[in-house]
Specification:
Helix content is 62%, strand content 0%. The protein folds into 3 domains: 30 residues, no CATH class; 114 residues, Helicase, Ruva Protein, domain 3; 137 residues, Ypt/Rab-GAP domain of gyp1p, domain 3 (Cyclin A, domain 1), CATH 1.10.472. The protein is mainly α. It has 20 helices and no strands.
Amino acid sequence: MDRSRGINDYEPGPVPSESRVDRYGFIKQNVSNSSAAEGLGKSREARRVRKWRKMIGVGGSDWKHYVRRKPHVVKRRIRKGIPDCLRGLVWQLISGSRDLLLMNPGVYEQLVIYETSASELDIIRDISRTFPTHVFFQQRHGPGQRSLYNVLKAYSVFDRAVGYVQGMGFLAGLLLLYMSEEDAFWLLVALLKGAVHAPMEGLYQVGLPLVQQYLFQFEHLVREHLPKLGEHFSREMINPSMYASQWFITVFSYSFPFPLALRIWDVFLFEGVKIVFKVGLALLKYCHDDLINLSFEKLIHALRNFPEDAMNPDILLPMAYSIKVLSLSTQVFMALSTLKFLMSIHF
């Protein structure tokens, strides 16, 4: 991505009318009349919200108790999708970020106001490229861009070894659509430092070591689960770095349809990075018959531009959930493949 344009070069157009904005705040590409479907969806959503409020309690007070008593119910409901109005709170509860916030009062304010970062200019240059079609981030120097800058700057100070890397903005931007700056910062810390699951900071360290590891593992999983497609990719000299790097770096928040990205994030925060592998494999499986007949140039295009029906959460995610990548044999396989990868670096 071009890093030459700064924030001052970005001139947003007028704020669109409500009818031109979807339920998530993005400018609609096509405006259609779907009031009947929306009405049915709202009725179903209201029932789900009532179930979720009963499950989490006031302000999340019952959450930990419910998870201990009924983990399978929690997992099933998260896989169906967290109600949008509760998403920010539930993400904080399942990520462990709420606990980090409570243990570190005043730290975020200190990082934003009193510290300086070597990454400030890089952050400013990239701000306008983060969800540019969302009304919250469109206004130059507006509240959305200021909040995004503050969160990224604070993290670059909090963890100077990582600092700031392109791609982190999409994580922070996604979080800011559902919570305050301080809450978004601590959830970013929880993810990168591993409050609940394996730390993500290796995705952004020098050399992107965790990205390289995940891509190496994903290539072997493709050969295991989709052997014919894996062989075709090998013949056409296609490797995951050509199409899947952003899947891991942004957890599908870059360029994927927002409703699908949200559903993946619901599961990702609760179950960990295995959902990224599963969704990636499900996409390839869904498009298998088309992909296997394409040559190099057309393959690259197809792997970066999946058809609309493949991006339907209600079609893709059940396929992803059915793919088993963490059985005992696969754990051994992943461990061995990682060891081979590390050996290939050092020797």
